[in-house]
């Protein structure tokens, strides 16, 4: 038995069908939507009830603000690779208050302090957990300093876990392998950071990061594509506060330069910075060599030599 639901109520109607398998209305072809109030599947156009008394997997409560939703929720945060225990362990709060908000006695405070100590010890019971806790903390700290999104942080955490499982850590520092994992993850996710920027927020120098990165990519057989100068263009344009026209023109120059192979064998950051400087000159935007070189952390000599090559490639494209 199926019904047709109108705005003002229900009208009985008999029409058998495979209700649960319907993806569109059998009468008007309209989309099937879920009615949360009645737990029914209803046609959005004609109001035909396709299925009744569907199981509602949502909560039994309602929340109208983010704070209210957080207070009523009885589940914790989702599992994540960014924590050594995947976020499955419990945490004892630091506030010395009871459930009613009243300050607890001194004896209870001492008991809670002991519980927090043992809880922290049991969260890192072996050397592997302690290693992961330190490394993933380093990855999160460096990611926050570099502005790397959560997806790349997850990938970096997975890479470090794989390195730990494959016993790639003996003889190498935890900080070095953590930095190499973050650098590799940023390249895999298409949001690369120059090695000198990563070294600036790391606890190891750039030479150790390069060695650890080569070792990690070789042992884990990571297929990391070469970095394109276009991936650095938007970030550099934001740092030097250039106009949209300059950034658009720089993108065109870079695409022409890539077609002519000008970027081959050169630092992609320097090529992107040179394209921004060349585009600024073409659009009469006040983009100086010193500003661009400081933002890209390359020398002004590199800017001067690269931008001529980029302009020549653009001239050849226009003449062709």
Whole-number radius of gyration? 29 Å
Q: Which residues sit in consecutive blocks of at least 5 with pLDDT less than 50?
A: 4-21
Roughly what percent helix? 40-55%
Question: Oligomeric status of the shown chains?
Answer: single chain
Shape: extended
Number of strands: 5
Instruction: Spell out the helices and strands N to C.
Output: EEEEEHHHHHHHHHHHH
- Describe the largest sheet: 3 strands, antiparallel
Could you give the distance between the termini?
71 Å
Count of runs of 4 or more consecutive helical residues: 12
Strand order of the largest sheet: 3-4-5
Describe the protein in words.
With 320 residues, this protein is mostly helical. The chain is built from 12 helices and 5 strands. A 3-stranded antiparallel β-sheet has the order 3-4-5, with no helix packed on it. A two-stranded antiparallel ribbon has the order 1-2. β1 and β2 (10-13) form a beta hairpin. The longest helix has 20 residues, at 127-146. It starts with a strand and ends with a helix. The relative contact order is 0.06. The model is unreliable at 4-21 (pLDDT under 50).
């Amino acid at each position: 038995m199926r019904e047709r639901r109108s705005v003002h109520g229900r009208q009985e109607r008999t029409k058998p069908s495979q209700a649960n398998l319907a993806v569109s209305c059998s009468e008007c072809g309209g989309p099937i939507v879920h009615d949360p109030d009645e737990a029914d599947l209803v046609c959005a156009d004609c109001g035909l009830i396709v299925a009744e008394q569907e199981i509602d997997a949502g909560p039994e409560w309602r929340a109208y603000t983010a704070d209210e939703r957080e207070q009523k929720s009885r589940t914790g945060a989702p599992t994540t690779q960014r924590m050594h225990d995947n976020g499955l362990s419990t945490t004892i709060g630091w506030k010395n208050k009871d459930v009613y908000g009243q300050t607890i006695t001194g004896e209870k405070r001492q008991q809670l302090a002991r519980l927090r100590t043992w809880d922290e010890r049991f969260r890192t019971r072996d050397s592997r957990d302690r290693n992961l806790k330190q490394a993933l903390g380093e990855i999160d700290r460096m990611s926050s300093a570099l502005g790397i999104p959560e997806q790349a942080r997850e990938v970096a955490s997975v890479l470090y876990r794989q390195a730990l499982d494959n016993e790639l850590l003996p003889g190498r520092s935890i900080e070095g392998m953590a930095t190499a994992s973050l650098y590799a993850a940023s390249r895999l996710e298409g949001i690369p950071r120059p090695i000198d920027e990563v070294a600036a927020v790391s606890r190891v120098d750039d030479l150790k990061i390069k060695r650890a990165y080569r070792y990690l990519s070789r042992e884990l057989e990571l297929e990391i594509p070469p970095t394109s100068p276009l991936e650095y263009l938007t970030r550099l344009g934001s740092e030097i506060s250039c106009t949209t026209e300059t950034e658009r023109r720089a993108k065109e120059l870079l695409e022409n330069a890539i077609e002519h192979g000008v970027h081959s064998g050169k630092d992609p950051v320097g090529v992107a910075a040179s394209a921004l400087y060349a585009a600024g000159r073409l659009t009469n935007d006040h983009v100086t060599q010193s500003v661009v070189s400081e933002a890209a952390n390359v020398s002004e000599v590199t800017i001067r030599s690269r931008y001529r090559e980029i302009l020549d490639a653009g001239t050849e494209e226009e003449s062709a």
